[in-house]
Design brief:
heterodimer; A: 363 residues; alpha+beta; Rossmann fold; OB fold (Dihydrolipoamide Acetyltransferase, E2P); 2 domains; six-stranded mixed β-sheet; five-stranded antiparallel β-sheet; 10 helices; 21 strands; 22% helix; B: 236 residues; mainly alpha; MetI-like fold
Chain lengths: 363, 236
């Protein structure tokens, strides 16, 4: 199941020229506001007609400017969750959820109504109207409505943008549930690193209408040279780990990864569950000897892999810990005083509180 | 004050004429309003002006044009007579036609405004859920335009109740057939002892208009409450 996109479009002074592929799992379209992310998903949905290019899904051509093919939106079977929900105000939640049944034989055939209602916790809302729902509830209904149209492909365009941080976390959990449930490609548009790190299998980095990098979340988030491409982007490492212990007394979790264990606070996952941890470069300090009597809970032994170029008195240092590469952002003076160089044995120090729930979550 | 049989007849005729004029012109008005709100085509400005013409023309002129085209020897009137045996001139149906034409621009305007006020992103959302053009229109655009449609119906109904110039020119002033409320009032003002009946009929007209206004307010309220939730009005 692969979606192939290769489109060009001119919108006033803005030029979109993007090509990428998306398979099963979550592909994040990541970039600043105005990078052309929404235009790309609109083109996939058929709401925007690109000047040139080709869009195909599983061998079926949805759009091809040269051959004059443009499958109309209703026939593309693409589920679309919009930034603002876009629930129908004159219909109640149940009618919104069942809307696709009016038109799509596919939606009628696959009756998963009860299942989706349960998955997204919508049972209490069914008889209410969108006008009486909170922002988070609206987005849950919007996700359910898209799922119940029995799509072959799911597009989510910044579904958390209009929500406060508390609701965001709640909806993220529902999106994770859904991702594990449906076996279709999901395109997730976002400019927030935390969301991308939590959800994405593949990241497509968009900048000024063009794809500047494609890779796994670990690869893209780890590359310091891509830093200016996204608003909240900050260099760091992404580590896949597993919960091995939960200390209820101190609210501390022990996470095992290829290279040791980490202690983190407030991890919302059970023992045995996989979690993804993002460690920002500026939260990592370096010591050449194992420090004693120190509050920092994570002291990881490793080896300096690379010392980056100095920029404005700051240096990014890569440290190999087992199979994982951590990044540390330190002052150029510290790097020089310690004589950091590739091959040197070093300890990476990471405060447990810097690995809070915003960085670690069930994956 | 109980109504006289003659007053009841006038009242019934007026309501019949106004109601039919609204019901028959409604589908056409919705169609034209939707086209004007959504479609750009060459000559749109001219078309728009033609739709609005009855609003600015003297009603007598409209009535005269109706007479020319729908009269027995007029191009449309002759066709209707030959094909269907329908004659509208000097009939209550002709009065309804005159009322419908005069109220038409008001109805189109109100409906068009409510189509234009619809968030088109909702229509795009409907199309991603499988709805084609017609489906989107029937399930999203039309229901969301309901308050405007109700308003348009009321405006046209009120205009129809008050129609005078086009009616008297087109279908004359025939008691029991085309003598609607305004025509009856006018007739009484032309006779020496007509002051009292004219006043009575005028008061009936006032009551009727108030009732229509009240009813439409209730309907619009109900329609927008359906749409925006139970506490929409207290919130605004």
């Amino acid at each position: 199941m692969t979606l192939t996109v290769d489109v060009e479009h001119q919108l006033g002074a803005f030029r979109l020229k993007s090509a990428f592929e998306a398979g099963e799992g979550v592909t994040a379209l990541f970039g600043r506001s105005g990078a052309g992310k929404t235009s790309v998903v609109n083109a996939i949905a058929g709401i925007l007609r690109p000047d040139r290019g080709c869009i195909a899904f599983e061998g079926e051509v949805l759009f091809d400017s040269e051959r004059g093919i443009d499958v109309p939106t209703p026939r593309r079977r693409v589920g679309y969750v919009f930034q603002e929900g876009r629930l129908f105000p004159h219909l109640n939640v149940r009618q919104n959820l069942r809307y696709a049944r009016l038109f799509s034989p596919h939606a009628r055939r696959s009756d998963r109504f009860g299942h989706v209602v349960e998955l997204l916790g919508l049972a209490q809302l069914l008889d209410r109207r969108p006008g009486n729902l909170s922002g988070g509830e609206k987005q849950r209904v919007a996700i359910g409505r898209a799922l119940l149209s029995d799509p072959r492909l799911l597009l989510l365009d910044e579904p958390l943008a209009s929500l406060d941080s508390h609701r965001r976390n709640e909806i993220l959990q529902y999106i994770e549930l859904m991702r594990d449930e449906v076996k279709i490609p999901i395109i997730y548009v976002s400019h927030a690193v935390q969301e991308v790190v939590r959800l994405a299998d593949t990241v497509v980095l968009l900048s000024a209408g063009e794809v500047t990098a494609v890779g796994t979340a670990e690869e893209i988030m780890g590359r310091p040279d891509l830093r200016p491409a996204a608003e909240t982007f900050e260099g760091g490492a992404v580590i896949d780990a597993k919960v091995v212990e939960q200390d209820m007394e101190y609210d501390l979790a022990t996470l095992a990864f290829d290279g040791g264990t980490l202690t983190a606070t407030n991890v919302d996952a059970l023992i045995g569950e996989p979690v993804r941890v993002r460690i920002r470069a500026r939260d990592v300090s370096i010591a050449l000897e194992r420090p004693q009597r120190i509050s920092i809970q994570n002291v990881l032994e490793g080896e300096i892999a690379a010392v980056g170029p100095e920029r404005g008195g700051i240096v990014d240092v890569s440290i190999s810990v087992g199979a994982v590469t951590l990044r540390s952002r330190i002052t150029a003076r510290a790097a020089r005083l310690l004589g950091l160089a590739p091959g040197l044995k070093a300890y990476a120090l990471i405060k447990a509180v810097s690995l809070d729930r915003s960085g670690a979550s069930a994956a | 004050m109980p109504l006289t049989p003659e007053e009841i007849e006038v009242l019934q005729l007026s309501l019949k004429v106004a109601l039919w004029s609204v019901l028959v012109s409604l589908p056409l008005a919705i169609g034209i309003a939707y086209v004007l709100a959504r479609v750009n085509f060459p000559g749109k400005t001219l078309f728009d002006a033609a739709v609005h013409l009855p609003l600015v023309l003297p009603p007598v002129v409209v009535g005269y044009f109706l007479l020319l085209s729908f009269g027995r020897h007029g191009p449309i009137g002759a066709l209707l007579d030959d094909w269907f045996g329908i004659v509208v001139v000097f009939k209550w149906t002709g009065a309804a036609l005159a009322a419908g034409v005069m109220g038409f621009p008001l109805m189109v305007r109100a409906v068009r405004l409510s189509f234009e006020a619809i968030d088109r992103r909702l229509e795009a959302a409907a199309s991603t859920l499988g709805a084609g053009r017609l489906g989107v229109f029937a399930t999203v655009s039309l229901p969301l335009a309901l308050p405007g449609i109700v308003t348009g119906m009321l405006l046209s109904f009120a205009r129809g109740l008050g129609e005078f110039g086009a009616t008297i020119t087109f279908v004359s002033n025939i008691p029991g057939e085309t003598r609607t409320l305004p025509l009856a009032i006018y007739t009484y003002t032309q006779v020496p002892a007509g002051d009292e009946p004219a006043l009575r009929l005028s008061l009936i007209a006032v009551a009727l208009s108030l009732a229509a206004l009240f009813l439409s307010e209730v309907l619009v309220r109900r329609a927008s409450r359906r749409m925006f939730g139970d506490d929409a009005h207290s919130r605004r």
